[in-house]
Amino acid sequence: MIKKIDLLKKLDKKNIDYKIFEHEPFYTVADSNKNRAKIEGAHTKNLFLKNKKNQFILFSCDENSIINLKSFSKAIKVNNLSFAKADYLQRYLGTQPGSVSPYGLLNDFNNVVDFYLEEFIYKNTKINFHPLINTSTLTIKTDEFISFMLENKIKINIFSLNENRVIKVYE
């Protein structure tokens, strides 16, 4: 499983510019708001979801976005989504609750998890995610994040909460 140090080495190898911030563990958006100081860029929350048919979804959205799971489920045609249990999170993304991040998709060797990125986040110049552990925040330019994920064979569905649909797909 890829861990923080492995991720940072991959980014360095690709000469991707990023900033890493070390901090106390952030388990919630409230923790982040209270303790993140002045980390620039869009701040996210990451929802790891599944349905009864064992379809898995990672939805990365703005920390303040309000998500109606029923509506989101219907829009992406994956019915009855709810939060996945921690054992699935560890199995597919190699992370623990509170550390969920799209970088965990690098551990999804069989591409079991579908990834959705909120349009609002996508339109920001810089975005922040945990680098597979919630005691750090990694800031990266959004276009470099997209390129990095695509180079690592991660399909990205850009989802508009305003339009309630996928507006762009990167493969």
Q: Tell me the number of structural domains.
A: 1
- What portion of residues belong to β-strands? 25-35%
CATH topology: YbaK protein
Described by strand count, sense and barrel closure, the largest sheet is: 6 strands, mixed
* Strands in their spatial order, largest beta sheet: 4-2-3-5-8-9
Shape: globular
Q: For the CA atoms, what is the radius of gyration?
A: 15 Å
What's the count of strands?
A: 9
Poorly predicted parts:
none
- Overall pLDDT, averaged? 94
Secondary-structure arrangement, i.e. CATH architecture: Alpha-Beta Complex
Q: What fraction, in percent, of the residue positions are helical?
A: 25-40%
How would you describe this structure to a colleague?
It is a single chain. It contains six helices and nine strands. The protein has 171 residues and is α+β, with helices and mostly antiparallel strands. The chain has a single domain, classed as YbaK/aminoacyl-tRNA synthetase-associated domain (YbaK protein), CATH 3.90.960.10. It has a six-stranded mixed beta sheet with strand order 4-2-3-5-8-9, with helices on both faces. A three-stranded antiparallel beta sheet has the order 1-7-6. Strand 2 and strand 3 form a beta hairpin. The protein is globular and about 35 Å long. It starts with a helix and ends with a strand. The mean pLDDT is 94.
